[in-house]
Automatic annotation (TrEMBL):
Molecular-function GO terms, alphabetical: ATP binding; CCA tRNA nucleotidyltransferase activity; tRNA binding; tRNA-uracil-4 sulfurtransferase activity
Name of this protein: Probable tRNA sulfurtransferase
Family: Belongs to the ThiI family.
Species for this entry: Pusillibacter faecalis
Pfam families registered for this protein in UniProt: ThiI, ThiI_fer, THUMP
Pathway: Cofactor biosynthesis; thiamine diphosphate biosynthesis
Entry function: Catalyzes the ATP-dependent transfer of a sulfur to tRNA to produce 4-thiouridine in position 8 of tRNAs, which functions as a near-UV photosensor. Also catalyzes the transfer of sulfur to the sulfur carrier protein ThiS, forming ThiS-thiocarboxylate. This is a step in the synthesis of thiazole, in the thiamine biosynthesis pathway. The sulfur is donated as persulfide by IscS.
Enzyme's top EC category: transferase
PROSITE patterns linked to this entry: THUMP
Domain THUMP as annotated: residue spans: 63-168
Catalysed conversion reaction: [ThiI sulfur-carrier protein]-S-sulfanyl-L-cysteine + a uridine in tRNA + 2 reduced [2Fe-2S]-[ferredoxin] + ATP + H(+) = [ThiI sulfur-carrier protein]-L-cysteine + a 4-thiouridine in tRNA + 2 oxidized [2Fe-2S]-[ferredoxin] + AMP + diphosphate; [ThiS sulfur-carrier protein]-C-terminal Gly-Gly-AMP + S-sulfanyl-L-cysteinyl-[cysteine desulfurase] + AH2 = [ThiS sulfur-carrier protein]-C-terminal-Gly-aminoethanethioate + L-cysteinyl-[cysteine desulfurase] + A + AMP + 2 H(+)
UniProt keyword annotations, A-Z: ATP-binding, Cytoplasm, Nucleotide-binding, RNA-binding, Thiamine biosynthesis, Transferase, tRNA-binding
Compartments it resides in: Cytoplasm
């Protein structure tokens, strides 16, 4: 590691935010600081749509900091860069030393320059020509190719220094967590709900999770699996609470008193009521589910209407138009796939009706539900609620 190497994090959508932009940037800087805290001492500040991350001590883990910064929502790309004086000679020397390995491996190169400091004497095209000419002399085996180079040398002229870096690595994009409000996400052990949670966090939403357990029908491993899914998500979402709510009594009551074809729908109605109660206590303003239209019988349009009938909070369903292939691809990308496919039964799969109602009528479901003491069942479930705090 070069002792004065640093990271430049490029901002995405945040730069479009007009008058609120400052608060988005401040939130993003504090999220980056929090994420890097355990990896060493870094100075983090924002200038001209870029967050600068400067290691303050030799022992800072730059590779880990790069990986962590890529997972912070609001950061669109990350580069490892080196600062130098704002002269063509200093820039050439920095590129020659810093990118020596890249030059050794390349056959063609070009220089791309940006001049954020407009008082600098040369414009960006002139900077690229001068530095490119010098580097072509320094590395005679590497030819200039402005269209399809093996290596692009990036030069940025900014307030205090010039910066030299190689290719940028993509970041997580989206908006900084904490700028999009607070929601409660229903987290099962399946593939969908971790992906839907990640997608809402990527819109800046701060999440808490609710998970329903039905001992003895569901095992401790099933619960551990869900806590692990939440922990995997903290890399993107930050620390969060997982509310664990006992669901056995409700499921047994439904099985005892209600028509089998409505089991899943009634279960979901109870889950929504309980999640809304958790959300209101937490000061959250929406619920998030992993539902995808038509994926299963309880996710047809009519079924979604029956489920949503019992809550007044908005229900956010980011996967609503996605198919299983896209959901699986995203789960692999964000690292939840392997945990999601562990074979422990959750409470959704225990009491599955053989012939679920595909076109349920709301009045029929309400009438069937009248056999239950809904408020008492919800209250008892909430009394049994425990929670786990997960951290990155």
């Amino acid at each position: 590691m070069n002792h004065n190497e640093m990271l430049l994090l490029k901002l995405g959508e945040v730069v479009l935010k007009g008058l609120n932009r400052r608060s988005f940037e401040d939130k993003l800087v504090s999220n980056v600081r929090r994420r890097l805290k355990s990896l060493g001492s870094f100075q983090v500040y924002v200038r001209q749509s870029t967050i600068y991350v400067e290691p303050q001590k030799e022992e800072c883990d730059m590779a880990a900091a790069l990986a962590a910064a890529r997972q912070v929502f609001g950061v669109v790309s990350v580069v490892r860069a080196i600062p130098c004086e704002k002269t063509v000679e200093a820039i050439t020397a920095a590129a020659q030393a810093y990118l020596a390995d890249e030059f050794a491996a390349a056959r063609t190169f070009k220089v791309e320059s940006r001049r954020a400091d407009k008082s600098f004497a040369l414009n960006s095209i002139q900077i690229s020509q001068e530095v490119g000419g010098n580097l072509a002399d320094a590395f005679p085996h590497v030819k200039v190719d402005v269209h399809h180079p093996d290596l692009t040398v990036h030069v940025e002229i900014r307030e205090k220094h010039a910066y030299v870096h190689g290719p940028a690595i993509s970041g997580a994009g989206g908006l900084p967590v904490g700028t999009g409000g607070h929601a409660v996400s229903l987290l099962s052990g399946g593939l969908d709900s971790p992906v839907s949670s990640w997608m809402m966090a990527r819109r800046g939403v701060q999440l808490e999770m609710v998970h329903f357990v039905s001992p003895p029908y569901t095992s401790q491993q099933a619960q551990d699996k869900v806590v692990e899914l939440a922990r995997l998500l903290t890399a993107y979402c930050g620390a969060m609470l997982v509310h664990i709510v006992p669901f056995t009594e409700i499921q047994e009551e439904i099985r005892r008193r209600c028509p089998e074809e409505y089991f899943t729908l009634m279960m979901r109605r109870f889950m929504m009521r309980i999640s809304q109660a958790v959300a209101k206590k937490a000061g959250a303003h929406a619920l998030v589910t992993g539902e995808s239209l038509g994926q299963v019988a309880s996710q047809t349009m009519l079924a979604l209407g029956v489920t949503e009938d019992v809550v007044s909070l908005p229900v956010l369903r980011p996967l609503i138009g996605m198919d299983k292939v896209e959901i699986i691809r995203t789960a692999r990308e964000i690292g939840t796939y392997e945990t999601s496919i562990l074979p422990y039964e959750d409470c959704c799969t225990v009491f599955t009706p053989r012939h679920p109602a595909i076109r349920p009528r709301l009045e029929d479901v309400r009438a069937a539900e009248a056999a239950l003491d809904v408020d008492a069942l919800v209250a008892r479930a909430l009394e049994g609620e425990t929670w786990v705090r997960v951290k990155p």
